[in-house]
Please model this.
Amino acid sequence: MKGKSTRLAVLAGIGGILGVLMIGISFAINPGPAPGASPEELAAFAAAHVAPIMWGAWLQAVGPVLIVFLALAVVHLGGLSHRISGWMTMVGGVILVMVSLTEVVFYISALLPDPPAMGSLSLGLAHAVQHLYFMVAAPAFFLPLGLVILSSPVLPRVLGYLALILAAAFAVVGVATLSTLVLSAAVTALAAVQALWWLAAGITLLVRARDLAGPAPAEAQARG
Model:
């Protein structure tokens, strides 16, 4: 059991680190068109950047899946798969992936030349989807995951408290920006903070992999 847990922790840790790197690279190679670009300028930008946009879309689609894998591995290794915090972490992971995939769809549809307004429409929808990260995706994922970490010895408790703080911070930003149709670059940049958390979690899980003995449901239930 310990050997299987060690392998899972290693794979999940590597997956989380790769997921963070993939998302970071996706934004680096696909900075997007200039704000306020006309439909003609958007079409020209799309025609000239098909490859980086498509690769960026692929990276942004796959990266969150690897991050969710890390989170669910923490739930499993902590023996909390059948607790409400474990279930809600799974739900939060699904929401996060679906929001990310929806945004990716609009990045890809913006490349279509017909109708001529497709670029503007797609970017507008992508901006709308970005609200969901702050409104529900990040809070719904970090809140139960933080509780999972605080109820198990898989990761340091400080990461659990930080996860709860991130959940609250994203929720507050989500409410505070309800009157803003297009989130500013400063606001969307806040999403990068979670990448540091995932990177720290992935590295820590790798370091602790050999010490993990496997799921312990009875112990997890005793912890409450």
